[in-house]
Amino acid sequence: MTYLPSTFRPLRDGWTLTAVNGPVPTEAAGALAAGIPAVVPGEAHLDLLAAGLIADPFDGDNESAQQWVGHTSWRWSTTFDWEPGDVARHDLVAHGLDTVATVELNGAVVGRTQNMHRGYRWDVRRWLRPGANTLTVTFAAPVPEAARRAAEQGAMPHVNHHEYNQLRKMACSFGWDWGIDVAGAGIWKPIGIESWSGVRVAGVRPLVDVIAAPGGRQRGVLRTHVEVERDGVAAMGDVHVVVAVEATESVTGGPRGPILKAGVVRRGEHATEVEIHVDDVQRWWPVGHGDPALYAVDVTAASGAETSTWAGRVGFRTVSVDTADDTAGAPFALRVNGEPVLVRGVNWIPDHAFLTRATRERYARGVADALEANVNLLRVWGGGIYESDDLYDLADEAGLLVWQDFPFACAAYPESDAMRAEVEAEARENIARLSPHPSLVIWNGNNENTWGRVDWGWGGDLAGRPWGDGYYSELLPHLLAELDPTRSYAPASPYSFGPYRHPNDERYGTMHVWDVWNRADYTVYRDYAPRFVSEFGFQAPPAWSTLTRVVHDAPLDPFGPQMLVHQKASRGNEKLERGWQGHLPDPATIEDWHWATQLNQAHAIRFGVEHWRSLTPHNTGVVLWQLNDSWPVVSWAAVDHDGHRKPLWHALRAAYAPRLATLQPRASDAARAAAWEGLAPERDTTALVLVNDTAEPFTGTFSATRLAFDGTVLAKATLEATVGARGVAEVQVPAEVATFGDPSREVLVVAPDADASGFAAALLDGADVVAQHLEPAPLEVRAARVDGGVDLEVTATSYARDVFCHADKVDPDARVDGGMVTLLPGQSVTLHVVTASDADPGAFAAVVRCANDLR
What we know:
- By secondary structure, the chain is an alpha+beta fold.
- The mean pLDDT is 97.
């Protein structure tokens, strides 16, 4: 949340919600004419739910029955007491109104708003009166308002079914191919009265740099740009500013105690810059590269006896992204403090369809989900919001990098003067707001709009009209150059960083890979050698308890009516079915369907990630679509809305391991020599590829063993390997070991000989599950109650692929510490189930599955 000064008095109490006009159901009309209690910050849907006027929007098919909410105009009203005191200025400050609103104080129109992505401030001295005051905020119905603007100003191409690109409102609130359609209205951030005298700190941008100092030391440079506002009454002269920077507990070295520096905002001016040098600074590093050292920054502005303050934190670090042409095209290579960072990322969508329910606790859970999956970057997707300071604070503390899209997604956007003014206002506010956060390393202009302009048939509909490129190529980069040049900027994702190039060309910049999932088998991932993948993904349902909590079809069926309400992708469940063809047997029951689709999602993503990471350093990053869900839905997420980590999450954790051993097909020298010019050579050998994304080099041996499913050793060899820090190495597996005699009954295992190597074993199956002769019941499971839950000791009597416990079927609140574990004959693993349930431990043993049992 934006820094709230002590002079700000939030107006939280006494709010009521009324329906102004719209298709309100008869049974709710009386209550909504009289007014129902409202929570601020809040949203119309949530107040209606609390009043019992609607059912849970996420449940069953309630979404369609509640579309009237987005077609209704809503009014929030409250009465509050106020006294002028001895303060000169009284401002009404609204930090977030969603979206088109008229604000009235004591019957007078104070202001009108057009944009949920920014705040508004009005001097309301002439409208306030001692004693009781009435504040109302009336919102236009978002769906008809967007349609009206499209009709009046000209519709612009977009995905999905509403004209969301006509409003500066969160695009996915209108529904997405994973998102519920709950376009509504609300006071979604604090609103209140700020009373102040003399001077107010209007904005702070603490920008950092790191420069070399004598003796090989590092010197931090903090340039703090401070904007002030005078009260217009008595404070017209100089404003004296003091900036203090001090190491927090996260800093283990360097100077202690605050470093102070003063500056002055001269009469007639509104800003100054104060520069502070911090010798022997401890730099902020991303996870896996060092400690995320943070420094506190405090700003005080004084005019006479009146003062105003601001507080925040910074991390000293440098950021760059190399997109210069090279012999293979153009990379997208991130560097922090001059050190290359190989990105292991996930896309982040709004964590709740109702933003006021995206609490700090949910953000903390999401950050933990990312870090524990070996993720080092979150990409905040452009169909959502400029993310909360809660998320950024947590990322700062954890060393988790963040890429922030400006909120433009999958559409052409008007470039009218009014829209451009709103875009500039929101960008200025959010660039400044997020400038303290060291985790923010990349700003991105849009999601897929540039690609859409080239490939999605927009030309005829646009008829030569501007479509948003003026924002991405001119306005936004110019604002960043003015306000915060310390981050990198990309105009779009995907983007190829050069003229005469398709924006989604694998040879240049960033790429989105969506033919897989939409129309191609996941093995097509191997046909691509992208420089950086910023989107790709594969769907599966959420955990069983999450799914059945909201889908009540009887019998449960992939194509049941409520199931399809919770599947938003075009022909999504058909694509799930097509996706497992050739990989898994057709499921016999709905529970098998659930397990098979989750398993296939995990297999698909691990296949793609390991292939692309094996191309390091040609490929410098992979960003999965997506980490989280905004509601219970069949989607691309690794973690469902209720916080259950799907099999995909466990597969991603393995594929994103800092030290990855993977078996990949490679062309031999002979195959390369035989290939025709311009054609890819046959991949006729198997290589052990070692990706070492750590600061320490590795030298050691691996045992390569071809095994029968009963454990019989068929061939074996020892491989010697050396791989440098942040490096990659390939070792060819001898043909007599790598060549399967009976692919349906054999597996190749390459395991490190040293337990402390940091590499997990790499496995290569001779065939997909559907073609393997797997023992259908290869597991023995012993369950025992222990402190905090249940331990499951799982032992394989035969080769067992992808062991996973669906603990939520027993206890929806249960969590398991591991999953997607493949066991060789005789191997065991202990899975710890965290649960407060008093269910028989054997019930958890009964929900352990593996790929074999689909046979």
